[in-house]
Each structure stands twice: as structure tokens, then as C-alpha cells.
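We close this part of the discussion by returning to an individual protein. The sequence in question and its C-alpha cells are set out directly beneath this paragraph:
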Amino acid sequence: MTPRTAEAARGLRSGTMPRAPEPPFALAVFDFDGTLADTLPWFLEELDDLAARFSIALPRPLDLDAVRGLSAREIVALLRIPSWKLPAIARHVHARAAATEIALFPGVREMLAALHQAGVAIAVVSSNGEAAVRRALGAEEAARVSQFACGAKLFGKARVFRTVTRRAGVAPARVICIGDEIRDGEAAREAGLAFGAVAWGYNTPEALARALPGAHRFAEVADIAAALIPGVGADARMARAAGM
């Protein structure tokens, strides 16, 4: 009999069951583009029109793998986009996204449901617009989100992270920000919050590891629930070992 089984047996005899372990984080703050939603293919389709509309000189040919290794600031510098153009570009992209069917990554709905059921509060902080985020999530998943903080400036997420944390009434030590870009991790670090880097988004896992060596790492969507919900990680490892 394992210690956990013995503890459960004692609880049954005494009429009380042991309390489930508390999740390590009480609040998970998600980025949207490239983290919850697969927007990179859509953005690449929009890129030529965007470049023509805002007079952006795209490198030809565009080495996507190389670009994915750069931070947002490095990309802005590479494309020589003046800072005064960024708000107008963001507004245009948000308007286009709100009218587009954007798919969530496989497993995102199940992951959000698992976090919600485990009592982990969920927030979404995105530079994308709230209309596009809600449209992609759908009513059921959107109802699980306790806070939407959308339309954040490209380099203004740290302040938003602090606001979301304060509104949630959660200690910073129990908040994790989860995103796919170097700027997400830098903003979390500036706000004094933990960061989890996902491997399937805009920045490559290698670029994220170089820029954010202390971040949590999520290779698959299911790894988020495995890391944030006590017991799920062990169950997931056992299922993979059994070939399930």
C-alpha cells in the first residue's frame, strides 16, 4: 500500500477524505495569438496586403524560420517600421481578425475546461481585439475566462499583467503568464510573474529558451494542464507510457 493509498484508507475509516493538493498557480494568464489560437497561417496570408497598405519593406525572400527566431522589437527594427505606425497597423489587424474564422490549437478547449474545473482562474491578455478572441473561443470557452484584457499595446503587457493580477486578488507568486513570444516572457518578468513558454507559436522553442532561460516549458497543449493541476501530470505520463 502506497502512502497516498494508506492516507485515503485512513480518511475513509474516519469519515474524512484527504484534501486534494492545491494547484501551484491560482491564476493562468494566457496570450491568444500563437498560444491559444493558430493565427500564424492567417497572418502570413495577410502580410503582403499589410506591407502594401502601410509601406513596409518585406525582406525578399522572407526567411520565416529566421524571423521566428527574433523578438518583436528585432522584427520591427528589421522591417524598419516607425513606432508611430504601430497603433494603426494593430487596429487594421484587429479589425481583419474580428471578421475572420480563427481556429484554436487542438486540445485548447479541453485544457481550458480542465483548468476551470480544477479551480484555476483564467485570464486572456492579448494585443488582439476582444471581439476576435471571443469569436475564436466560442461562448462556452469564453465563459470560463474571468478577465479579458485585449487590445494591449505591442510592448505594454507588463502593466496589463499587473492590473489583471490585482483585479483577481491573487498574490503574484501564484500567477503564471503563458505565451509564445519573447515579449510575453519579458513582460511577465517585468511584472514579477512566472512565465510558461509554449513550443507551437510565433517564436521558436530555441529562441524562447535563449531569451528566457528560467521559463516553464510546454511542448504540447496538454502539458499545461499537466503542470498546473496536481495529479494530472502523473496521469498523463502513465497514459503516454501505456501508449494511450
In short: The chain is about 50% helix and 10% strand. Strands lie at 27-30, 121-126, 147-150, 175-179, 194-198, 216-218. The CA atoms of residues 9 and 15 lie 10 Å apart.
